[in-house]
Amino acid sequence: MREPLCDYMWYRTPITGVYMSADTPDSKDSIKQENLRLKRAVEELSILNEISTTISSTMELGTIETLIIKKCIKHFHVEQAAVMILREEASDNPFQTMIREADQSRVAAPYRLDTQLTGWMLKHRQPLLVNDLQTDERFQAMPRDGVQVKSLLCVPLFKKGKMMGLISCFNKKGDEGFSEEDQRLLSIIAAQSAQVIENARLLEQEQMLTRIQEEHRLAAEIQTRLLPKAAPSINGYDIAGVSYPAKAVGGDYFDFISIDEHRLAFCVADVCGKGIPAALLMSNLQATIRTEALLVQCPCECLNHSNRLLYRNTEANKFATLFYGILDVNEHSIVYANAGHNRPFIVRGNGEHTELCTAGIVLSMLEQFDYPEDTCTLAPGEVLVVYSDGVTEAINELQEEYGEERLWNLAKRLRVKKADDIVDEVIKEIGLFAGTQEQFDDITLMVIKRM
Amino acid sequence: MNAKVKMVDDVAVLTVKGNLMGGSETDSCHMKVKELLEEKTKKIVADLSHVKWVNSKGLGMLMACLTSSKNSGGVFKICGASEKVNSLLMITKLITIFECFDTVDEAVASFRE
Predict the structure, then answer these.
(1) What is residue A94's predicted lDDT score, i.e. its pLDDT?
(2) Which of A318, A342, A365 is facing B97, going by the closest CB pair?
(3) Does A275 fall in a domain?
């Protein structure tokens, strides 16, 4: 294919020539001929101008394609025209987007463009002009049903030397068929259109990305609202909880559910994975736990039921870990059950720590599982710390994990502080430890301190 | 592809390398297991001795392998889990549903019992 700029230059020269020769006319015939050429040249320039003005006035891909098609139908006097855009990711049918416009006065049904044409264009990457398709050896197997294609003109669209699509015109009206001039003009139109189409395509992609980002933002907002706004205030207890997702939305969550005047259920959970899929499962899990917490009396039953419900609603590779406890403020006891979650621990008055070891399998792995239950007590000043693996698996620049040991020691040092401060300090410490390393997993932390 | 298969008689030993953290290697392992099951290989051992890190996605993948195997009438066992991987299996109690062995030989031999 010729460079479009060269085309244009080549095309202008004769016009100047005609103008020069008009001063010394040789014969009336040649003037007439020259005038005809001049008229056609002006026409072509005006169509080019028209197309470039209209297509650059819009940035919407569909509109641009339709405009090009309409102008082609009008100018080339054809029954139908089409703009096809090549999609790089689709290998079986490279030409995915086909926008066709038919001149309704002549054609009732749209053509089914044969893959032969697109195949030929992809292979040869050059303009194709056929005025008698029925006898053309290259396209012997064109479909004979529906509207017959008699003549066609097809030029490729290039983007930085790569073929990105094609513009085709079918069935020139009248008997003359497509001319070399038609081909040249359509090539110029194609060269003009390619960049505009590409820009529109990029804009469309960007708009889609913006929409997705907006949806993410909304999802994050919804999820934040699902988390408790404030920790419950209970006489004799100081409670705090936070959750920081690694991405906009996450799979971790914590919750407080008031069961009656002296009992508070609480939980920390981690749904496998991150982002939207994890967040969806998380909201499902939260709804399940909130319902079960009020229906059943003990943690083990709550987990047994929730496990079964979740198992039925999820795929084999999806699961969640959950620690669920019920604090009795009269007894100062915590009855708990654990579905494969990191072991919570209590910092005792003497500075030692006790891990809550009783646990069962992660939720949603087995249809039926009887979760064991255990009880622990809190003496004045003692602190229960429940956390997700994002805390202990935070990684520093040396690829070391924060680990449980560090967390235990930190909690021991902080145990005299208020629950809110303990939570803040731990989160700060994790941030300092990770340094420049990106937060990889959701971080959730809950502290229950008996005053 | 970070999962290589070696046949020891009728047992397929899948050597998994890298981190099972939800990346492409995590998916490729489950794909390989599904391929084996389709080819009527019913005895599969995943050798995890070259796996450094496993997170919840990785665990999910191992569980998916186990479930796919069970559903196709196969048996999926694991071996060579590092201390870290093992502790994760302990905490999540998944150790109770996986047949775990120290070495490939032990895992392969277990099919002959």
Answers:
(1) 52
(2) A365
(3) yes
